[in-house]
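Appendix B. One record, verbatim.
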Amino acid sequence: MHYLPASEDDVKRMLAVVGVPDVEALLAAVPREVQLKGSLPLPPALSESEVRDRFGARATKNTVASCYPCFLGAGAYDHYGPAAVDAILSRSEFYTSYTPYQPELAQGTLQTIFEFQTMMADLTGMDASNASLYDGASAAAEAALMASRLHKGRRVLVARSLHPAYRAVLRTYLQYLDLAVEEVAFGADGRVDLEAYAKAADGACVFLVGQPNFFGVVEDLKAIAAAPAGHKPLLAAVVAEALSLAALEPPGRCGADLCAGEARSFGLPLGFGGPYLGFLTAKREYMRQLPGRICGQTVDADGRRGFVLTLTTREQHIRREKATSNICTNQGLCMLAATVYLALLGRRGLSELAVHNLSKAEYLKKALAARGVETLFGAPTFNEFAVCVKGAAGAGARLFQKQLLGGYALGRDYPDLAEGYLLCATERVTKSACDRLAEALGDLS
């Protein structure tokens, strides 16, 4: 959409309608000492073509994941988005619809929500899904709030190996509530320290653990679920890389009660930090405490298939004290993109893509090992893993000089892992790029 400024005649007509002589009169309530004196220090006006050229020149100074091979993950993963996703997403009937308040007029949107919920419940091995939350971090925090309503205990346990940003958002959500946040250490293999967890579990309402965790390590959810005795907290698996759900055993089949996470990998671009797409799934007995919206399937008076909002337990619909959340969005457009993406790939295609990512990361591991770069943890990983690199804090800048987008220096969030360097390999990087990275990191080490 282009910006079309009002003409002088337009301005005069608008001022006449509101009953003021000039634009300055609209600012009468603003103290004169804080009003701008004179013109803004702006350069002379440019023509449309000159503006486009200037912005184009500025844009070429950006380096994005499509410019160089990208080995940076840490919660934002570089996956290919099929052209069909944007083509369907940009259709006017999808692009303009947002909130399905009138189900008889929003059957397409409601069906899409229903399909998204069905797919996410299937991928996570749970009975019910919402649609949906802002991002993975807020979804994890909502899972903690949900658990506090379901389970006794005023302590929230969180794995120290969970994404640092997720842990920060969790603390922000809970800082003024009667809920204490405690972290559980990870062991030498990068997985949750089961002994430490068992000692801390009594009296906690939930334990949030990344799957895979921030180091790309695949947690043993079955062992975690079996670890504590007595009063067990609910187990919430938190997924930052949704593609892993197509390769790993679903959390719901491993003893998890809730599964929260980030679905941006399903058809949404990296986009310089957004938009993202949170999700939250649960077992059937916990469904009524899910925040956000839940769409259900029904039949009308004539027996025709239809869709309705089955649960909308938020402040707009029920008494405030009974609301499960104040979230007012269903992330409609992002949810639609994920639904289209999953439908395009299908069960088989998504599984093949996950295996492709896993094999690409394993190839990179071997290439690095051949150059003397050792992995930091010994447990299995998905498409992301940590290695030991001397001077890891500056490795990214040095790799960039070699036209490689490197990994994430773990010392930023884990001072005890100052030489830890987190790398990711998706389907977007080639084997030759992996070889180049291994050579470059081998030289740095």
